[in-house]
Amino acid sequence: QQQVKQSPQSLIVQKGGISIINCAYENTAFDYFPWYQQFPGKGPALLIAIRPDVSEKKEGRFTISFNKSAKQFSLHIMDSQPGDSATYFCAASPTSSNTGKLIFGQGTTLQVKP
Amino acid sequence: NAGVTQTPKFQVLKTGQSMTLQCAQDMNHNSMYWYRQDPGMGLRLIYYSASEGTTDKGEVPNGYNVSRLNKREFSLRLESAAPSQTSVYFCASNSFSYEQYFGPGTRLTVT
């Protein structure tokens, strides 16, 4: 079963625009929600993460919005740049399991056109 | 610090052949993970090791075995490769923080 559903699968945005990627989860035990960024030929790297005690977290041009009641969270990339072109994965984890395991979404390929 | 290293970077196998993917981390992390990445499927956990001496199945363990050789090294073995195992394989590690650090990946093709 797919515990974390991510959309859209691909996204094309003009330079300077806003990129929005959405994720939905089912397991209410999840309490850690990171976003990973992956460039072609590289491994994923942590971009930003949020815990459910806050509804929003911002780091530079990247913002996570979190809606606990809807079991949804999203990544907003403001002023998108060609260098942001990459694949983005949302993920979720039940930290109480103490295993460090992450459940990943299907990924979104973002292309930012100059 | 090299972080997480994986060997080999590329491999082509024939159906039925065996091979071992190697992973090592130099960050003194307790936990290590093996994922496979397929288009449209995201990253799926094959096996993980929460600490030295323990291993557990993930979401897609069939056809794979693992060994946590010591705290630094975690290997993934394909005993009899199948075309369905064509994928990009990533090793990752973490410790008390939930941030996982990924290696550069191994691109495996099974013909």
Roughly what percent helix of chain B? under 10%
Q: Beta-strand percentage of chain A? A: over 45%
Q: Could you say which overall geometry of chain B the principal axes of the C-alpha atoms support?
A: globular
- What's the main sheet of chain B like? 7 strands, mixed
| Beta-strand fraction estimate of chain B | over 45%
Report, as a whole number of angstroms, the end-to-end distance of chain A.
38 Å
Separation of termini of chain B? 36 Å
Q: Give the overall pLDDT of chain B as a whole number.
A: 95
How is the biggest beta sheet of chain A arranged? 6 strands, mixed
Q: From the alpha carbons, calculate the radius of gyration of chain A and give it in angstroms.
A: 14 Å
Quick structural gist:
The complex is a heterodimer of chains A (114) and B (111). Chain A has 114 residues and is mostly beta strands. Chain A contains no helices and eleven strands.
What does this structure look like?
- Chain A has 114 residues and is mostly beta strands.
- Chain A has no helices and 11 strands.
- Chain A has strands at residues 4-7, 10-14, 19-25, 33-38, 45-50, 56-59, 62-67, 72-77, 86-92, 103-104, 108-113.
- In chain A, strands 2, 4, 5, 9, 10 and 11 form a 6-stranded mixed beta sheet that branches.
- In chain A, a hairpin with a 6-residue loop joins β4 (33-38) and β5.
- Chain A is globular.
- With 111 residues, chain B is mostly beta strands.
- In chain B, 36% of the residues are buried.
- The model of chain B has no long low-confidence stretch (mean pLDDT 95).
- Chains A and B meet through β5 and β10 of A and β4, β5, β9 and β10 of B.
Descriptive labels:
heterodimer; A: 114 residues; mainly beta; six-stranded mixed beta sheet; five-stranded antiparallel beta sheet; 11 strands; 0% helix; 52% strand; B: 111 residues; seven-stranded mixed beta sheet; four-stranded antiparallel beta sheet
Write the layout of secondary structure elements.
The complex is a heterodimer of chains A (114) and B (111).
Chain A lengths: L3 E4 L2 E5 L4 E7 L7 E6 L6 E6 L5 E4 L2 E6 L4 E6 L8 E7 L10 E2 L3 E6 L1
Parallel strand pairs in A: 2-11
Antiparallel strand pairs in A: 1-3, 3-8, 4-5, 4-9, 6-7, 7-8, 9-10, 9-11
Chain B lengths: L3 E4 L2 E4 L5 E7 L5 E8 L3 E8 L6 E2 L6 E5 L5 E5 L8 E8 L6 E2 L3 E5 L1
Parallel strand pairs in B: 2-11
Antiparallel strand pairs in B: 1-3, 3-8, 4-5, 4-9, 5-6, 7-8, 9-10, 9-11
